[in-house]
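A further point concerns the way the authors explain their paired sequence and structure data. An entry of this sort, consisting of the sequence and the corresponding backbone structure tokens, reads as follows:
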Amino acid sequence: GHQRTLYEEVIKVPLIIKFPKNKRRGTVDSLAGIIDVAPTILDALNFQIPKQWHGKSLLDTQIPKEEQYVFSEDINPEDTTGEVKGECFSLRTHLWKLILSTKRDFSPSELFYIREDKKEFRPLKKEAIEQILRELIVRIRSTAVKDRHFHEKIVLDKEALERLRSLGYIK
């Protein structure tokens, strides 16, 4: 497996979509997450994208770069000592990458100026970027709260539990 981290080296993965009969061709230079795949497929098939979906179609070239971002999260990652760091969230724009940890009460863990530090080797000092921090924190909190329903406790019936045990997912 790979590390549990929110650095680009782990979470940045190319997305390649091949349409039948080469119906569409080209490269899209927008930020994308897994949440954008289904809306893109519906858009390509000329179906309406449900308004309650958070993702966007990658075929929509009208979205300004300033409004594009990707939200990522890792629930209960451990650091190199095995200590649980709390939930970690990241928000990536074309210019910035912010990583937050709930263990630090949503305090910034690291902020990178991606345009000049694509490999995330030089986190910026907080006092130099207070305004951008406030803007990114507002976005990450609103996204984390909006998507919170995905982390609600799910109660499984006996049959589902047995099926998961037989597949080795639970003990």
Observations:
- The mean pLDDT is 79.
- The helical segments are 8-11, 37-44, 130-146, 158-166.
- The radius of gyration is 19 Å.
- The chain is about 20% helix and 15% strand.
